[in-house]
Amino acid sequence: MIAPQQPPRRLPISPRHPLYPLLALVALVGLVFGPVGRQVGDDMPEDKTHPYFPDQFWPYPLLAMVALITLGVLALLGQPLLQPGQAADPRAAIIPRPEWYFLALFQFAKLGPGLLTTLLVPAVLVLGLLLWPVIDERWGPGLARRLGWGSWPVPKRNRITGTIWIAGLVLIGGLTLWAAFAPELCIPWPYNGPVCAG
Questions:
Q1: Strand ranges (E), 3-89
Q2: Residue 104: is it exposed, middle or buried by C-beta count within 10 angstroms (0-12/13-18/19+)?
Q3: For the chain, what are the domain ranges?
Q4: Residue 177 in contact with residue 107, Cβ under 8 Å?
Q5: In angstroms, rounded to a whole number, what is the distance separating the alpha carbons of residues 155 and 167?
Q6: pLDDT tens figures, 6-46
Q7: 82-139, pLDDT tens digit by residue?
């Protein structure tokens, strides 16, 4: 007796099914990242691995507590700054000041010609920030050869780029603090006379 032939089985989800893209994505992730269950730690000897809990878990609650305590202290100390001030008087003569994150640029704009300090230097700084990885990768090894180094140091150990970044942060911090906390302080300046923070 010959068994009746069964029609070929179709997939329960066809390409026209609304869940088909999700199924295809799951299949592609499996193909790209390899079989499920294989971990990087499988190739390592047992004495060089660490358990996730507690060795790798403990810093996260500690960091969360530090962040929460810091926010609480800032909220407590910053309470007087959050109190409403005087009512606005449209007849009063005031000097508008930018928000705190623009105070360094506001202060820097007073130090030279307007075109240079308000347009050209900020544009060059923004372009420098965007192109810094390319500059560091392309010109770094040549500079290392000229200095007699074996190779261009990795970012965490690079004294030249680290010094440039720290100097820039100190300059920005100094200008911001000068404008925020010492508005009456004026320094002599060769371009346009004394420059005051206020």
A1: none
A2: buried
A3: 102-198
A4: no
A5: 16
A6: 766 666 677 777 778 887 887 777 777 666 555 655 677 77
A7: 778 778 788 888 777 888 888 898 888 888 888 888 899 999 999 988 988 888 888 8
